[in-house]
């Protein structure tokens, strides 16, 4: 299975082997410099052209929480952790957390497969 696709059709992350570091496919506005994830061709704030960038981290794990009872129809089996990572580019991204982590840790995007055929990014502690 391929990576989940954002509204504009591009990948959410750069493909890599499961467990390996990756980069999130984002964009930065050429005018107002707003950073968007997932990647967009036009800025959501001012409508100017956006340029492709990659969010590689390290980022800071600002929020960390455990999901003990998943919503109906969820494919990721509980329990699992979700976190919000703040990147140096000025954007916060929510995602799964892979491996042990604590609030405030330095994290990088990694490729994970939380269920058969479901490849997505997660945040793992930076080496």
Q: What is the number of beta strands?
A: 8
Q: Low-confidence parts, pLDDT < 50 over ≥5 residues?
A: 1-7
Helix content: under 10%
Number of helices: 0
Mean pLDDT: 92
Structural class category: mainly beta
Dominant shape = globular
The rounded Rg comes to: 15 Å
Amount of beta strand: 35-45%
Report on this structure:
It is a single chain. This protein is an all-beta fold. Helices cover 0% and strands 43% of the residues. It contains no helices and eight strands. It has strands spanning 24-29, 35-36, 50-55, 59-67, 80-86, 92-98, 106-115, 118-125. It has a five-stranded mixed beta barrel with strand order 4-5-6-8-7. Strands 2-1-3 form a three-stranded antiparallel sheet, with no helix packed on it. β5 and β6 form a beta hairpin. The model is unreliable at 1-7 (pLDDT under 50).
Brief write-up:
The chain is an all-beta fold and 127 residues long.
Give the SSE layout.
Elements: E1 24-29, E2 35-36, E3 50-55, E4 59-67, E5 80-86, E6 92-98, E7 106-115, E8 118-125
Parallel strand pairs: 6-8
Antiparallel strand pairs: 1-2, 1-3, 4-5, 4-7, 5-6, 7-8
């Amino acid at each position: 299975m391929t990576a989940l696709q954002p509204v504009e059709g591009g990948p959410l992350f750069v493909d890599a082997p499961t467990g390996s570091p990756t980069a999130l496919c984002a964009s930065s506005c050429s005018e107002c410099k707003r950073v968007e994830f997932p990647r967009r061709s036009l800025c959501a704030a001012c409508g100017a052209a956006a340029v492709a960038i990659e969010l590689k981290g390290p980022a800071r794990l600002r929020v960390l929480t455990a999901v003990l009872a998943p919503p109906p129809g969820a494919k990721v089996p509980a329990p699992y952790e979700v976190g919000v990572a703040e990147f140096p580019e000025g954007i916060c991204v929510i995602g799964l957390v892979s491996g042990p982590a604590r609030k405030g840790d330095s994290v990088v995007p990694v490729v994970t497969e939380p269920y058969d055929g479901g490849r997505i990014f997660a945040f793992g502690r930076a080496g």
